[in-house]
Design brief:
Helices cover 45% and strands 12% of the residues. By secondary structure, it is α+β, with helices and mostly antiparallel strands. The protein has a three-stranded antiparallel sheet. It is elongated, with a radius of gyration of 14 Å.
Length: 65
Amino acid sequence: MSDKSYLTSSEVAERLAVSPKTVGRWAKEGRLGHAKTLGGHRRFPADEIDQLEQELTVPVADDAA
């Protein structure tokens, strides 16, 4: 894990409004790319999570018409 910015499971969970266990499950299933630290903890590339967060964000319709 070099110059890239990485997030913890908890940080990813907060951004995506899911539980940390869900993040871990998605990583285990291959849905989320990640790297593991020497201690075995998962770290997620911030740029990939940013992109996923944008894809999952549903725009709110403006009913001011």
